[in-house]
């Protein structure tokens, strides 16, 4: 019986796909884990307890039907599992690779709480859709009946691409504008290949192009056209630019050569993986080879930087973070992967200054300790006067997170309202900005967040835009 295949979490141990050895994977930018073989994926899916209240789904921003597609996988009904997985997510195989499952679905798995180890949800999700691509089950994007209405999407990241897909399926003409020469946003240029191989992203974008979505790449809103000009061209606009302005470290020596922003570093590395000419990499400025590298920060971007530096052949790689391991924002799995690959973490430490003649050569570090909780409930770091030391550095990478750019100024649209944090102000029911017919979604509204939240916001905003466009068409028809 099919039901006998389930509830195997007691007699069957948790098992993730095998990772390549640290020595092997540190030499290339391929993904570090191989795909499940079919029997392994089936067996791991069968560990799901099919609990009455699926906390995995509750804690997934997309509310994916996780127990249902795990059951279908365990029963060998993989095509149905794919169709169900694809029903709630535009990029399931991407989420399976880069979501912090340890903080979301797997971290809230009931059998994890029972001590048997969570179901390996992310790896199964990746397996299901990778198999669908290989077997030809991934359907083309079928545009709906033409509405005669046009939508402009600014930003080709997860939120923008998701909204574009849903709006195109509803029959709207969709134009996507992005300042980079490839679509995908941080999926393409911010996340290294060892977490997300670029072919996985490109095949998604190719599908959207084949579905009739128009991409305008190398297009900077504010330079190539103002926001008002795009509003005149389209019936509705979605702003989904993400947040790209790097947070700074205000310490002496911050402007020295060799002190660089994380995104500049990661974009250069990813461009090299595409075979692009990157002068700042080729002349050594953004290449860690042979250097003592210090990365400052404790989020997932910092983890991407330290692991990229290892692969570029750095002499040493250290990560300075002002809190301890338990209080860092990045994925614990990523920390473990980095440590296996030779990265040294210096917990409870913060830079006091960067010593340089012209080029950085040393970081003066102040020890930290955790004091009283801050407004978010996390214990605030404070200086520990008894700990000061120096760390040699030929390259310092600042990975302290991102803030919004000044979009009203950048887009030539001073009446575009922002919050005190610089994010776009929206009506949270309609997701519309202060400008009629201009919507916003993703990190530019919520601040720097996860890819899965960008997909969720793209899905939600497409529904609101569709309602507004329908009402607009009805009003125009009535007026005529």
From TrEMBL:
<keyword id="KW-0521">NADP</keyword>
<keyword id="KW-0411">Iron-sulfur</keyword>
<dbReference type="InterPro" id="IPR023753">
    <property type="entry name" value="FAD/NAD-binding_dom"/>
</dbReference>
<keyword id="KW-0479">Metal-binding</keyword>
<dbReference type="GO" id="GO:0016040">
    <property type="term" value="F:glutamate synthase (NADH) activity"/>
</dbReference>
<dbReference type="InterPro" id="IPR028261">
    <property type="entry name" value="DPD_II"/>
</dbReference>
<feature type="domain" description="Dihydroprymidine dehydrogenase">
    <location>
        <begin position="25"/>
        <end position="136"/>
    </location>
</feature>
<dbReference type="GO" id="GO:0046872">
    <property type="term" value="F:metal ion binding"/>
</dbReference>
<feature type="compositionally biased region" description="Basic and acidic residues">
    <location>
        <begin position="15"/>
        <end position="24"/>
    </location>
</feature>
<feature type="region of interest" description="Disordered">
    <location>
        <begin position="1"/>
        <end position="24"/>
    </location>
</feature>
<keyword id="KW-0560">Oxidoreductase</keyword>
<dbReference type="Pfam" id="PF14691">
    <property type="entry name" value="Fer4_20"/>
</dbReference>
<dbReference type="InterPro" id="IPR036188">
    <property type="entry name" value="FAD/NAD-bd_sf"/>
</dbReference>
<protein>
    <submittedName>
        <fullName>Glutamate synthase (NADPH/NADH) small chain</fullName>
        <ecNumber>1.4.1.13</ecNumber>
        <ecNumber>1.4.1.14</ecNumber>
    </submittedName>
</protein>
<keyword id="KW-0004">4Fe-4S</keyword>
<dbReference type="Pfam" id="PF07992">
    <property type="entry name" value="Pyr_redox_2"/>
</dbReference>
<dbReference type="GO" id="GO:0051539">
    <property type="term" value="F:4 iron, 4 sulfur cluster binding"/>
</dbReference>
<keyword id="KW-0408">Iron</keyword>
<dbReference type="InterPro" id="IPR009051">
    <property type="entry name" value="Helical_ferredxn"/>
</dbReference>
<dbReference type="GO" id="GO:0004355">
    <property type="term" value="F:glutamate synthase (NADPH) activity"/>
</dbReference>
<dbReference type="InterPro" id="IPR006006">
    <property type="entry name" value="GltD-like"/>
</dbReference>
<feature type="domain" description="FAD/NAD(P)-binding">
    <location>
        <begin position="151"/>
        <end position="453"/>
    </location>
</feature>
């Amino acid at each position: 019986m099919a039901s006998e295949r389930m509830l195997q979490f007691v007699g069957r141990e948790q098992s993730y796909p095998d990772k390549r050895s640290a020595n092997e994977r540190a030499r290339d930018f391929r993904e570090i884990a191989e795909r499940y073989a079919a029997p392994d994926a089936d067996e791991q899916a069968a560990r799901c307890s099919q609990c009455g209240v699926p906390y995995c789904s509750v804690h997934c921003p997309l509310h994916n039907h996780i127990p249902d597609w795990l059951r279908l996988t365990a029963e060998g009904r993989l095509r149905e599992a794919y169709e169900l997985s694809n029903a709630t997510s535009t990029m399931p195989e991407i989420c399976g690779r880069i979501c912090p499952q340890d903080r979301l679905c797997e971290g809230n798995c009931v059998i994890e709480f029972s001590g048997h180890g969570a179901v390996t949800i992310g790896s199964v999700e990746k397996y299901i859709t990778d198999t669908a691509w290989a077997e030809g089950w991934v359907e083309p994007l079928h545009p709906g009946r033409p509405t005669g209405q046009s939508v402009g999407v600014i930003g080709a990241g997860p939120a923008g691409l998701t909204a574009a897909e849903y709006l195109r399926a509803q029959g709207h003409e969709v134009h996507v504008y992005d300042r980079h020469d490839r679509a995908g946003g941080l999926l393409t240029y911010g996340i290294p290949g060892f977490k997300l191989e670029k072919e996985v992203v490109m095949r998604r974008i190719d599908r959207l192009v084949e579905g009739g979505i128009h991409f305008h790449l190398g297009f900077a809103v504010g330079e190539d056209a103002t926001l008002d000009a795009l509003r005149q061209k389209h019936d509705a606009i979605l702003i989904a630019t993400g947040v790209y302005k790097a947070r700074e470290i205000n310490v002496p020596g911050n402007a020295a050569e060799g002190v660089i922003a994380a995104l500049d570093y990661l974009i250069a590395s990813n461009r090299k993986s595409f075979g692009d000419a990157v002068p700042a990499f080729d002349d050594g400025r953004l290449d860690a080879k042979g250097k003592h590298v210090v990365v400052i920060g404790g989020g997932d971007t910092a983890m991407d930087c330290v692991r990229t530096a290892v692969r570029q052949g750095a002499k040493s790689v250290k990560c300075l973070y002002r809190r301890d391991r338990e209080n860092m924002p990045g994925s614990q799995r990523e920390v473990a992967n980095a440590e296996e690959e030779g990265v040294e973490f210096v917990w409870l430490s913060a830079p006091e200054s960067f010593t340089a003649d012209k080029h950085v050569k040393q970081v003066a570090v102040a020890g930290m300790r955790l004091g009283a909780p801050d407004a978010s409930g996390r214990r605030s770091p404070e200086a520990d006067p008894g700990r000061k030391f120096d760390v040699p550095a030929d390259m310092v990478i600042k990975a302290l997170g991102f803030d919004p750019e000044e979009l009203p100024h950048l887009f030539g649209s001073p009446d575009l309202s922002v919050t005190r944090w610089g994010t776009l102000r929206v009506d949270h029911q309609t997701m519309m900005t202060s400008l009629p017919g201009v919507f916003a979604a993703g990190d530019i509204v919520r601040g720097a967040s996860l890819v899965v939240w960008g997909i969720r916001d793209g899905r939600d905003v497409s529904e609101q835009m569709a309602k507004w466009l329908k009402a607009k068409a009805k009003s125009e028809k009535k007026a005529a």
